[in-house]
Amino acid sequence: MLTMLLRWALNAAALMVVPALIDSVSISGFGPALIAALIIGLLNALIRPLLIVLTLPVTVLSLGLFALIINGLLFWLTAELVEGVSVHGFWGAFWGALLYSILSSLVDLVVGKPR
């Protein structure tokens, strides 16, 4: 339980780094980052697998690159759902999702993968 809370807080901190590197993403504080990290986790666990299966032919034809488009769209959806998080345009969401994925992977390396 403590590891899950630590991972959530570190992912929110990683989300706070994204606006520093990508101008089209803005987060007003750590509270909205915590909520956004939670929603991103839920969307990635519940909706992303369904979207991957539904778009499997396109994903296979693009050699998996379409999964990056799905990540960007889910990042954009998160910004629409959370007050205090804004993304200006699809490409901002795309690059924000890509950077957040890298940072989240680093968090998993530090904390350890969930079982």
From TrEMBL:
The chain crosses the membrane at residues 12-43, 50-77, 89-111. Keywords: Membrane, Transmembrane, Transmembrane helix. Pfam families: Phage_holin_4_2. It comes from the Bacteria. Coiled coil: none annotated. This is Phage holin family protein. It comes from Uliginosibacterium sediminicola.
